[in-house]
Fold each of these.
Amino acid sequence: MGAKIWLITGCSSGLGRALGGYLLERGDRVALTARDPTSIADLVAAHGDNAIALGLDVIRQAEANAAVAATVTRFGGIDVLVNNAGVAIVSAVEDASDADIRAAFDTNFFGLMNVTRAVLPIMRAQGRGHVINVSSGAGRTSAPMIGLYSATKHAVEGMTQALALELAPHGVKVTAVEPGAYATRLTENSITGRTSAAYAGAADAMKAYLAGGRFAPPIVGARVIAAVADLDEPPVRVPAGTDALDMMRAAIEGQRAELERWAELATCGEE
């Protein structure tokens, strides 16, 4: 498919690190970013001129602008942006504080927008490019204790769908990749606040799920993202992993059943 130039956020661990390593091994050129760039120095050292490590906290627009400029200076352009940086928030909706909710949205949505806005003028000028937003299976459905995390990813999904339509005339593609559960540090570094007695049962169930789940390695998602970027006509949304695919199928079937059950109610106001 030819070597590509990538800018990836959130490469210190998990999916971002796995993706960066996978792309470098296949010969692509990659700008790896993290809040602490020393955490990715080993990847750069192993791949020489094809890699660059950049400090980037996505919630800071100036840092996003600088990372994009440094990538273009080093490699001459950007073919693919992967908005991967994210944070989990595990909390009952009622229990979460304003500060925790805003922190989750700052990284997962507003931070994503900071980097996207910095990249788009370059891609439009090139007349090509691909923005890949790492969403989640929770971007199409939800569950107790992840409602606010899900809300951030629903926001990403809605924006992605519109952005794909807006950028199509400019030759720029947009995709939301929806991973299932991977064995990453996302939940270890999640935002968690107090849990009230009313939601203790839901919290215990979530803890049991996280402790007992057999999660796929992040390389699974990395391969899906690479394959999506190699397509001439990529999807706007695509699950990543068997569990995500099964989750999407169940969610769509459930939504369709609910829609048909209440179709008469939906039209009851019409004469």
Note: The mean pLDDT is 94.
Amino acid sequence: MADIEEIQKSEVKLYTFSGGTVGVNNLELFSQDNTYQGQTKEFSDPFYIITHPKGNLMWDAGLPQMLVGQDPYTDPSGAFTVSRQDSVLNQLQAIGMTPDDIEFLALSHTHFDHSGHANTMKNATWLVQESEYNFITSEETQKNNSDLYNAIKDLTKITKLNGDHDVFGDGTVIIKSMPGHTPGHQVLYLELADHGPVLLTGDLYHLYENREYKRVPSFNYNVEQTLSSMDTFEAFAKEKNAKVYLQHQKEDFNKMPKAPEYLK
């Protein structure tokens, strides 16, 4: 008789969706030096649904939904031009789901391009590192970065984490604490039915070159923590022989099966 845990592993699936596009007009921000001076790049900005026999998890939440139907928006600094083509409600319909089908929400971190439709998932339990929760709900953030706070303020079902977290208790979906980009940044490890071991990087790495050369964005919360997390990540990826997907790297996004294709 098949082991229950093996059956569960065989049923864990990943659905990839576009949460918008980020045009980086000043790529130099993504290194501590002038390596990328004068360069630009287009980033993907996905979010994901992970289905498991014990429930469904949404990982990240794309760009703000107010962008849907609008012209691309460039921030006041001119560093980023962002756009989003579709709402989470329409996108979930592609796999026969509504927000009420999502038991858990986890954000790699709470920057605006990862928390866009988070409040739509207010009935889900938010799995967040306590350090990230304290950062995003602090008086300083509410005062100086109110948009970041407002993006998650409707989430009231909260499980605060302090380190790694096995979401379903069987090793197939594990949130890994990887601080540095923000105080409570995290990545996601999956054991998928059709792809094997997979790691979604959040913003630990934005670019292939940053992974290869351990380059740290100029705006990261803590450089030393980031470098330590990179070491921990690479050791874990090697241990698990996991395929690594950089969420903002368009080439990796294009490799992932999208919802309509997944169901064919």
Note: The chain has one domain: 4-262.
Amino acid sequence: MQEKFFYKCIDDKLKNVAYSGAQLLGDDLNNREFNTTQISPQQNKENALLLSTLTNENDVKFVYTMVENNAKIYFTSSSITKEQYKNNFYIPYLLEYKGATPKLKASFQNHKSYFGEATDEYGTFRSIIMPRKTKDGYWYLIGADIDVSFVKKQLHSMLFDYILTFGIFLSVLILFIQMFKKITDEENKENLQKQKKLLEHSKLAQMGEMIGNIAHQWRQPLGEINALLMKLEGDYNNSNLNAKKMDTTLQQIENVTEYMSDTIENFSNYINKNKYQTEFSITDALQKALTLINAEMHKNSIQLNLILTDNKFIKGVEGEFIQVVMIILQNAKDALKEEKEKHIKIHLYNEEKQTVLSIYNNGTAIPKENMSAIFEPYFTTKFKSKGTGIGLYIAKMIIENEFQGKLEVANVNNGVEFKIIL
């Protein structure tokens, strides 16, 4: 997306430069019959210098006008580079242009503007070609070129800035989360009996783990970007860099940064305090939850198995539904700490006209004496430093009060199963 926006800016610049060139020269230059005696070398030189003011101020390589006669294309004016100026070289009036592409020639017939990239004797450029009509009815073209190598360099610089911005954002986000976690730890000492404080505490208590997940998930993409940039620099230093390699590498970098952006977007949606009710897909919510916790599961060698045999759109706060899934998955992760082989199976299916989300783990069965109290506030089998016992209570409260559903738990063969029934 950033690359498309960048190229749009480049094309807008070319369009403005070409239009300004037409205004500076006027149309009369292209209103003449094809006679080289009708414009003096001095006038041609003045026209070139006039157009060169535009190229010098806008990082554009050339601005020029063209006419057609007997199926041939001729320059009627052209800016010059600094090197050409030093060598006192000016493109002559009515110099035949032999590098015209079929698309350029077609513009004389269909009178349509176009953007494109082409290589000729002057270099490789991204260009705009704009047809114009003189007052006496002659059609001519005005074009503006920018070096493709310059464009790629600017895009490369933009990607570096983009990555740097991501790094700064992550640092600020970590400080922000740490601040809230500190506030939450202080609030834990106070009264947590009110529903609002319970909900806030549960969500903030998981945010520290989410930061760890994001940092873990970003480690590999950042390494990939660094490797791609090093390869790009090596190709450039060894003169092995061409347009195809540049485009391929930049596309790879863009794909990686889009993945990183999606991770941050999911995290931002998760911690958003704005409780706007929307109609959302359970499948989409599951995918977002897994994006946030996948790295943690991988770090703990837990195999996740996702089976989607149904989907349903429900109305409510998507972030709260994700919070419920996260609570159950975190609970399952803790239950599997002592297991050699760790499995979590998530199954979304339809049963008797109801949508059921089953989350199974192969951890130790819940003792019968604890089964009736597992959803009660402040009940926990963990050490006090490891949990507050309100997660499952809040999960059940959200499902029942906000989504009018049910949250159940049962010991099944070789494990424990939580069911969300909607």
Note: Confidence is low (pLDDT under 50) at residues 382-389.
Amino acid sequence: MEKATAATSLIDLEAFERAPLARTPFPFVIVPKFLKPEVLERVIADFPKIPKGGSFPPAGLSIGPACLELLEALQGPEMRDAVSRKFGLELAGRPTMVTFRGEVRPRDGKIHADSRTKLISVLIYLNETWDAPGGRLRLLRSRDTLEDYAAEVAPDSGNLVAFRVGPDSWHGHSSASGTRRAIQLNWVTDENVLRRELARHGFSARLKRFLPFFGEY
């Protein structure tokens, strides 16, 4: 592994390397406390204020320095190479896409598999604690029920979950409401996908900002 930079010192790449790769029902890895407690506290303090549900691209958000440093680390070559090794997938030259979530709504978390234009999905949870029974990500064996799950991840303590996107990479969570901070990082197939997805998220974000009754969008 390459020598850690100032940015990568925010993330525990050694823990990521050590974490075992599960191969069923689809390839995934879970890394508890991928951000150490003192780092998590700083990043939460610098996390943008997002008072509505949905995903938001970084552009247009007010992001503090520690959170920006985290984005640099997540999209840097050390993280990319670690993810490539873990999943046996060459990611050099593949664009990255980042979105933020700050709130969860009762209707969120429905079972889905991510778009096939995404190669890898990574979620980093930026909540100090999570006591609610809902809102815990479940990696599912089928699209039929949330109860048939291979693993469950609490959205707290700087936990990370990453998985290879495929037609059967079903995941979701039971109903929850309130603050649920997360950063989603994706490696996508090409720049056209990146432009289209960011335009879609940006348009949705503008609607949510100016037209609150578009909550279902």
Note: Confidence is low (pLDDT under 50) at residues 203-217.
